[in-house]
Recover the amino acids of this structure.
């Protein structure tokens, strides 16, 4: 079986993209492709339902986005997608003498490659250094869970909170309640939902009944 056969077209494209990513890294062009997907997922939840932010955060954790530079994650995913897809088509041909529809095979390969990529990047994240995208802006802290560390947060009277960014690096920010009638005390888990200058506004996780911390 050739990867360039029609039923393997999605997987041939994925292999070509892996080669292009490798060439871009070799030529020093990786920074142009290095935007971190998890930052996009959690950058701004203002105007969205709060539970959706927790869902996106859990999804990015499952996929392993943010544990390694995004170009590395993408190359692993594309390679896994292509390898699984070609193997699936070969298996189908050996059993039924006919390959699967290429888009059905692509859907199955995507479903298999995504969690496998998440498993692979966990050990890689402990070995590979993060690239320049590990220096995140404060706006990317929106949508993330935090813990009040000092004081009581009231409207007009912020308290200090600790939040980890997408790379697990801790940040300390000043927080007020998003709802004017709320108070948040030391030890409370909160969700950062809005920012005004260097001040964040948050809701208590218990009030919103969000999913458990990933």
């Amino acid at each position: 079986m050739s990867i360039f056969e029609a039923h393997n077209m999605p997987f041939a494209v994925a292999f070509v993209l892996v080669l292009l990513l490798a060439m871009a890294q070799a030529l020093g062009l990786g920074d142009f492709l290095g935007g971190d997907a998890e930052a996009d997922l959690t950058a701004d939840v203002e105007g969205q339902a709060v539970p959706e932010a927790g869902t996106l955060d859990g999804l990015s954790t499952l996929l392993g986005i943010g544990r390694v530079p995004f170009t590395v994650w993408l190359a692993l995913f594309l390679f896994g997608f292509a390898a699984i897809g070609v193997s699936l088509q070969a298996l189908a041909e050996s059993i039924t003498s006919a390959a699967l529809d290429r888009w059905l095979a692509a859907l199955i390969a995507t479903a298999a490659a995504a969690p496998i990529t998440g498993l692979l990047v966990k050990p890689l994240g402990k070995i590979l250094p993060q690239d320049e995208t590990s220096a995140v802006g404060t706006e990317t802290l929106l949508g993330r869970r935090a813990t009040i560390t000092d004081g009581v947060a009231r409207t007009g009277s912020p308290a200090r909170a600790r939040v980890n960014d997408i790379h697990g690096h801790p940040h300390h920010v000043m927080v007020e309640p998003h709802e004017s009638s709320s108070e948040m005390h030391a030890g409370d888990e909160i969700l950062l939902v809005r920012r005004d200058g260097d001040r964040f506004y948050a809701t208590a996780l218990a009030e919103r009944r969000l999913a458990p911390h990933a």
